[in-house]
């Protein structure tokens, strides 16, 4: 009887702990992985985003355009004040500008993704191989930074939805002087994802959008990288027909098998000449064809395309390159048919962002 009573008390205690733990998760103001989806405060969350490339000096206008489009996320990428200069990667000039952008986005109910790819490119521009460099000082600088506009440390900021490390990483078997080997590339993601998670356990962390998955001879061991325990989502980009027709089905199927969601980390619709037979980023006819392509990307993302090939499961969202009023790759009012597609697929308005946990 004593043994049964002890077991009963143990079971009850475990049930209470599980209930408290689940309740804590459901109230978290941070974006979290919930099965094959994302959630915030226990409610589903789909990323309907665009990159803010080149728009960091006027965050008010960029955020207003995002709200007009119905976006709920802006991706901060290539944000340095001096392009690919390593000395500017942790400068106050760069990060006060990022501070301001995050503060304006947050005040308007939007979240941001911080993409660190340009740090890797700054390392390359200095002749340093990004896959063998130690990123911990940079990651520590970012996660411990206190936003000069909000007074909140980055690691405690719910308006940050996710960090992406290094998108479009160089393929080990392609010709680039600062590329890593297959072993170095895989070890880089294992080491650096773990460092970032240790520095900031509140936020989602991913490798960044993968390219070259359609090429079995690229040397990228993408399955091992995506299976890393600290890689929260399987990020893939669509920049070509093989990306769309081979990479997306492969990634979504593999990641469904290991229980991880996938994210369409980047797609583009630019006015300009084709660069090759598989290019689906550029459209010489402009707006009408760009709009058709944008519709195709959203249908692929949401596993709603009337014809294959299709992903194995819907993505947790997507980001397009980029949101701006003008520019040949800028999805905005300058391309009204394309912009209308973005608006049509707008996510439900983002809920107010709660205060950070104490």
From TrEMBL:
It comes from the Bacteria. InterPro entries: GH (IPR017853), Glyco_hydro_5 (IPR001547), MAN-like (IPR045053). Keywords: Glycosidase, Hydrolase, Signal. It is an enzyme of class 3 (hydrolase). Residues 1-22 form the signal peptide. Its EC number is 3.2.1.78. It catalyses: Random hydrolysis of (1->4)-beta-D-mannosidic linkages in mannans, galactomannans and glucomannans. Residues 47-218 form the Glycoside hydrolase family domain. The keyword Signal applies. Gene3D superfamilies: Glycosidases. Belongs to the glycosyl hydrolase 5 (cellulase A) family. This is mannan endo-1,4-beta-mannosidase. It comes from Arthrobacter gyeryongensis. The lineage of its organism: Bacteria, Bacillati, Actinomycetota, Actinomycetes, Micrococcales.
